[in-house]
Amino acid sequence: MKKLCLPLLLIICLLLSGCGGREFSDAQEQLSQRLGAVEALSFTANVRAEYENKTARFTLSYSEDSQGGSVTVLAPQLIAGVTARVKPDGTSLEYEGISLGTGELDDYGLSPMSALPMLLQALKTGALDSGWTEGDYTVMQIDSTDTLSCTVWLQPDSLTPCQAELITDGRVKVFIEISDWQEGAQLPAPTLEEPTGEIMEY
To answer: What is the pTM (predicted TM-score) of this model?
Structure first.
């Protein structure tokens, strides 16, 4: 009898884990398709970037529509208003006006200003590595590229991102807290400053 119970328990465990995996896979696919089809998107994010010898904090605004996307600095006040347009590949930035040199966190283009476009690119096109629940949140580990992955915390019913971590070179380099997430067709397009050719280091 004992010999039969052990295999039966193993089968039950495998079935349960398989159902859970399918649940997260379906949720990730739903999120990916929704973000890929949305006409307009905007949110605010508190971004903490961990360099080898310093920590940098920013409050950023991200918005995108059919014309493309943009990242705007809201804080610190000294550089508020600096804006960069997101190129079609969804990861690189093109500044119009004052350029902000924040320094890259790895050899693949991750920086505080590129973190939000890279997060969105991961949510849209990344591959699910694993998923689990944590308190009231659905959590997914998503591989974006061979060098970048992200962990994202989502509200379970709406699958709205509320927190994320970007991982490269084997450790978390960027921590992101998301608020004011909006999706729709009537969000305002980003307003960019006129080019001045200046570069601001921070």
So the answer is: 0.80
